[in-house]
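Recall the central idea of this unit: under ordinary conditions, the amino acid sequence of a chain determines the structure it adopts. In this exercise we apply that idea directly, starting from the sequence alone.
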Amino acid sequence: MSATTTQHIFLDKQHPVVWRALNGLGLKVREAAEAAGIDRRTIELLYVRTSQINGCAYCLDMHVGDAVKAGETPQRLAVLPAWRDTALFTAKERAALALTECITELPDHRSREHEEAYAREHLSADEFSAVSWLAITINAFNRVSITSHHPVRQER
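Accordingly, the structure predicted from this sequence is:
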C-alpha cells in the first residue's frame, strides 16, 4: 500500500459544502428539540449515549464536555451505559434514551415497536420527533467522524 492509500480522508474537509449542510441540519434539529422542551443537558446526554454505542471517540470527547457544561453530573455520565439499571434518570429521560438506542441500533421490528411504544408513553409527539431527529443526526456525525478517523487531541 502506498502512503496515499493509507492516509485518512477527512470527509468534512474533502466535501466542506456537504459538511456545512450536515452542521446546519444539526443546528435546526437542536432548535427543534429545544422548542419541544428538551433541555440542553438531555440533548447532550442523548449525544453521549449514541456516541458510546457507535464507539465514536471524537464525538464522545466533545459531547461529554458539552454535557458537563450543560450541568450533567459525572455520576450520571459514568453509569450512562447502564442507565436501565439505575434510578438516576427521569421517566422522560429514560424514554428518550430508549428511543435513541432503538434508532441507533435498529433492532428487529418487534423490539422497535416495544421501545417506540414505551417512548410514546412519556414523550409528546413533538418530543418523540425531536428525539428521533437528534438520534438520526448524531448517528450521521458519528459516522463522519469514525470514517474520517477524527483524532481526539490531548487536553493541555
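The chain is about 75% helix and 0% strand.
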